[in-house]
Design brief:
By secondary structure, this protein is of the alpha/beta class. Helices cover 50% and strands 15% of the residues. Helix 2 crosses helix 6, helix 2 packs parallel to helix 7 and helix 4 packs antiparallel against helix 5. It is globular, with a radius of gyration of 18 Å.
């Protein structure tokens, strides 16, 4: 009996570790949109007005600073860990340009998981400890109430506040306000050429995860 239990435990452990360290084919992950976007709401949990606000904000920061912060929501992680899924998504989408200044903000409501995954070029500006505090103190309280739009918006704004000084954020906000009248489709067309660099980075490995 003990041998049978050990046998099944070994199989379970093997399957789990394969998922934990798995190399996921890019074809198994969500496809990048035709126009590279900052907000990729595949789980449909962000309301339209907030999605447009985040999209415009992150495009403004990308154009001004080169920071590629991508929000991705998926229904499920398909059995993979949030770390493995985010790492593989980062490797396939390659945000951050030559400086590898990319961040993936991954939300999987099916598993109630959130991960902020950072590229090597941004780890010194957004540490794992800061990601942990941000997730648990800002995002998770909203997510527990199913207020995903507010949790993601406030999480994104806190990331920007950690990385950039107030003076720089104020200057970018002025530019952002000038473009506030643009609708999101026009913004995609206008920025499609420059925003293509959003997805030409290398690899990432930092960040932290949360559960609600």
């Amino acid at each position: 009996m003990k041998k049978i239990i050990v046998f099944y435990f070994a199989i379970f452990f093997l399957i789990y570790t394969q998922k934990l360290f798995a190399q996921i084919e890019c074809s198994e992950l969500p496809n990048k949109n035709k126009f590279p976007q900052a907000v990729n709401d595949f789980a449909y949990i962000i309301n339209d007005s907030v999605e447009q606000k985040i999209e415009q904000k992150l495009r403004s920061y990308f154009e001004s600073t080169g920071l590629a912060l991508i929000v991705v929501t998926v229904d499920s992680l398909d059995g993979y860990t949030d770390d493995s899924y985010a790492q593989n998504l980062f490797d396939c989408w390659k945000p951050g340009g030559e400086n590898n200044a990319g961040i993936i903000f991954l939300v999987a409501p099916g598993e109630r998981k959130l991960r902020i995954h950072t590229g090597y070029g941004i780890e010194s500006s957004l540490t794992d400890a800061q990601c942990n505090l941000l997730i648990n103190n800002i995002c998770v309280p909203y997510f527990k109430k199913s207020k995903y739009s507010s949790g993601i918006l406030n999480g994104v704004e806190e990331i920007l506040a950690i990385i950039f000084p107030q003076e720089q954020r104020d200057r970018i906000k002025e530019e952002e306000d000038k473009n506030a009248g643009d609708n999101i489709q026009h913004t995609k067309r206008r920025n499609s050429k420059t925003f293509g660099g959003f997805l030409k980075g290398k690899s990432g490995g930092g960040g932290d995860s949360g559960f609600w």
